[in-house]
Design brief:
Pfam families: Inositol_P (PF00459). InterPro entries: Inositol_monophosphatase-like. This is Inositol monophosphatase family protein. This protein has two domains: 160 residues, Fructose-1,6-Bisphosphatase, subunit A, domain 1 (Fructose-1,6-Bisphosphatase, Chain A, domain 1); 111 residues, D-Maltodextrin-Binding Protein, domain 2 (3-Layer(aba) Sandwich), CATH 3.40.190. The protein is built from eight helices and 14 strands. The chain has a seven-stranded mixed β-sheet, with helices on both faces. A five-stranded mixed β-sheet has the order 9-8-10-14-12, sandwiched between helices. A two-stranded antiparallel ribbon has the order 11-13.
């Protein structure tokens, strides 16, 4: 589209607004009230919902409609917001007709329990792949961003994009994170790695790494049952731009976004090195995850 801003311009223009959203999220975390679960199910990560989720999404929607009224937009809480009807579309379009996505609070359960490793994730998607992702960690005064083919970067919330430094964790732990449905893989990795099973190891009192631990060096790898465009896939894109291996569970390249359903990639294997990636794939091939 001729009047389409570039992915970098989208991040640059929205960053000041996302800083405000980050300050808001941090300010009210200790007072936050949870809404009823989004739906029934045993995954308390997927069902958690707060005032912050709804308020941040509304705030970003207002900014988008004022600044980029021509864009497509899909936010996690699109069914609950008043603004969804005012966007041109909520789905992927043809090439270079970007879809902006938002996870207003990635890690809502972490957020509710007072942990610091929650994020606000905004992405720019093309028909085939991610163009840009910006992930803010309000409690850590940090954000990460990546642009397609241009690498990944880290800065403080006061930094502009051009002040951020290339994202290179100083050290990487020997820890692997297994997403909600992937606990059975642990038996095939625990002899070489410290394994965290989200479903059984999460604690309201003691923090565990979230998927964003891949960016900070707290994780050497992660296995996710799916890669939702708004969160897991977005973080995988940043990891890929910083040099990590990201594939499907069988080691195949990820499919173009337009071939995916329900705004998600298939299951992801994300690894800091070729050896870690090989170990993850062997573990996946050796079991039937549950």
């Amino acid at each position: 589209m001729s009047d389409q801003p570039t992915p970098r311009q989208i991040l640059e223009i929205l960053l000041p607004h996302l800083r405000v959203a980050a300050a808001y999220a941090q300010q009210i975390q200790s007072q936050i009230v949870a809404h009823p679960d989004k739906d029934q199910g045993d995954n308390f990560f997927a069902t958690a919902l707060t005032d912050a989720d709804l308020s941040i999404q509304t705030f970003v929607e207002v900014a988008l409609l004022g600044l980029f009224p021509q864009v497509r937009f899909y936010g996690e809480e699109y069914e609950k917001t008043y603004n969804t009807p005012y966007f041109r579309a909520i789905d992927l379009g043809p090439a270079d007709d970007y879809l902006i996505t938002l996870d207003p609070i990635d890690g809502t359960r972490f957020y509710l329990d007072g942990h610091p490793n929650y994020q606000i994730i905004l992405s720019v998607l093309n028909a085939d792949d991610f163009e840009a992702v910006l992930a803010i960690s309000p409690a850590q005064n940090t954000y990460y961003y990546a642009l397609r083919g241009a690498g990944a970067f880290k800065g403080t919330l006061l930094d502009n994009l051009n002040q951020c430094l290339p994202l290179q964790p100083e050290s990487v732990s020997n820890t692997v994170l297994l997403g909600w449905k992937m606990a059975a893989v642990a038996d095939y990795l625990s002899d070489r790695y410290q394994v965290i099973r989200v479903k059984t190891d999460y604690s309201a009192n003691t923090p565990i790494p979230n998927v964003n631990g891949l960016l900070s060096g707290d994780l050497a790898g992660a296995i996710l049952s799916t890669g939702k465009f708004i969160d897991g896939a977005a973080l995988a894109f940043i990891a890929r731009e910083m040099g990590y291996r990201v594939t499907t569970h069988d080691g195949a390249a990820l499919p173009p976004l337009h071939q995916c359903e329900n705004y998600q990639w298939p299951g992801l294997a994300i690894a800091s090195t070729d050896q870690v990636h090989q170990d993850l794939l062997q573990a996946l091939a050796s079991c039937s995850p549950s």
